C-alpha cells in the first residue's frame, strides 16, 4: 500500500514542476515510445514478409505440398475460372489507360503466386525502408 502512495506522490510532484519540465518529460516519453514501436513494427514486417516469401519458395520447390486452400483459391477466382492462368500480353499505344490497368489486374489476379510475392515484398520493403 505504501508503494502506491509513493507512486502517487511522485506523479503529484511532476504536476508541480515547471511547464517546461513537464513538456520535456512528455516529449521524451512520447519519443521513446514511438521509436520503440516503430522499430518493433519494422522488425515484424521484415519477419512476416520474409516468412511469406520463404514459404512461397518452399511450396514452389516442393519442400511443402500445396494446400487444398491454394487449389480452391486458384480454381474459385471469378477471373480465373477453371484454373486458367492469365498470360501477359504486349500492350499497344492504342489502348486506353483503363484497358491497360484492367489487363494488369487480370495478370495479377490470375496468379496467386504474384499476389503473395507482392505482399511479401511489400512487407520486406516496408521493414527495410
Return the domain count.
Answer: 1
| Overall pLDDT score | 74
Helix fraction, binned, reads over 70%
Distance linking N and C termini: 47 Å
Biggest β-sheet strands, sense, barrel: none
Query: Any low-confidence stretches, pLDDT <50, length ≥5?
Result: none
Q: Per DSSP, what share of the residues sits in E-state strands of 2 or more residues? A: under 5%
Tally of helical segments = 5
Mass-distribution shape: elongated
Query: Total number of β-strand segments?
Result: 0
The class by helix and strand makeup works out as mainly alpha
Give the topology string: H per helix, E per strand.
HHHHH
Radius of gyration: 26 Å
Model description:
By secondary structure, this protein is mostly helical. It has one domain. The protein is built from 5 helices and no strands. The protein has helices at 2-15, 19-61, 68-76, 97-109, 112-128. The longest helix is centred in the first third of the chain and has 43 residues, at 19-61. The two termini are 47 Å apart. The mean pLDDT is 74.
Q: What is the fold's blueprint, element by element?
A:
Elements: H1 2-15, H2 19-61, H3 68-76, H4 97-109, H5 112-128
Helix pairs in contact: 2-5
Task: Give a short synopsis of this structure.
The protein is mainly α and 129 residues long. 74% of the residues lie in helices and 0% in strands.
Quick tags:
single chain; mainly alpha; FUN14; FUN14 domain-containing protein 1; membrane; transmembrane helix
